[in-house]
Amino acid sequence: MAVLNHFLKPTVLVTGATGAIGRAVCRELVTHGYLVIGLVRNLEAKNRLPYAVIPALGDIRDPGGWEHSIEQADIVLHLGLHVPERPGPKERAEAEEDARRMAEVLDRIATLCRRHRKLMIHTFGALMYEPDPDGWVRETSELSSGRGFGIRHRVVVPVFERHRKRGLRAMSVNPSFVYGQGGWFESGVLQPMSRGESYFIGDGSQTMHYIEALDAAAGYRLAIEKGIPGQDYLLADDRPVTLGEFTALVAREMGAPPPVSIPEEELIPKLGAWAVEAYTTCPKVDSTKARQQLGWAPRYRTIEEGVPAVVRAFRRLGAPLPPGSIMAHSSPPPAPITPPAAHGGPPLPPQPAP
Length: 354
Known about the structure:
Layout: E1 11-15, H1 20-31, E2 35-40, H2 43-46, E3 54-57, H3 67-72, E4 75-78, H4 92-115, E5 119-122, E6 136-137, H5 150-165, E7 170-175, E8 177-179, H6 183-194, E9 199-201, E10 207-208, E11 210-212, H7 213-226, E12 232-235, E13 241-242, H8 243-254, E14 260-262, H9 264-271, H10 273-279, E15 284-285, H11 288-294, H12 303-316
Parallel strand pairs: 1-2, 1-4, 2-3, 4-5, 5-7, 6-15, 7-12, 8-11, 9-14
Antiparallel strand pairs: 10-13
């Protein structure tokens, strides 16, 4: 039975509540009157939960251990990513093994949601679909052929669909690459740029499509309020761009040096061929369905609107200015920028795993 509350709105259990997307979703739900339970794996992670989120301790790989939290909720919003980080190059065989682990976890959570008759909202990401000849994906597109991060979805989506056929009330919300406070964007882009390290993989011409984290969070909330079980919803801002355009914009806003290109062939021995492919593969995303059915629209329609806002928020947290930044008038002249890969370690990838 769902926990009774005075919010007059459903109780939502969020897995991955301390991640970059999870924190944004939790804040969005709390500020709109929801009672939110956040799954955390330990007491240290509990301290990273947004204000007013109720912690539930548990290992995402063993939902039987936190089944009581599923019983207390009306809706389970599954955002948790449980892929172990391993040093060294990552090739396709390892990515396929990660996909099987993700499918096993989803199967366990979906089984409990079905048993307790809870609505489940899962996130795959825009790479669950195979792009058309013009590079676009829609909810009517075919399942990914398995390129890059698509290998995860090719393995996991059939598990989700099998539970739907068995009676699981479920929908999926699938954003393009999400940038915002925390996560890949902060650790892999903003923090290196604050040290004067600015780079991208390849020649920068790869098509990318982004969405700011708070805009993605609004999409999840509207799916709860207006979404139809059995449906899937894509989220993205108004305009696809290239990897080079995105990285150059962030560098300008950060006052960092212009991005340095690192050839893909130099990174393959360090990251692995599959990882390089995954970090540079993204479709153009048509979010018309979410806009029409959910009434969703991004506050930040383009990266030119969203990136400056995120950088300002990063600055407010006390992030240092890059060495030699034109904003840091008292800084000494910058040292030449050397790509991290040249020091023997691969750069942090500028794209996440959606």
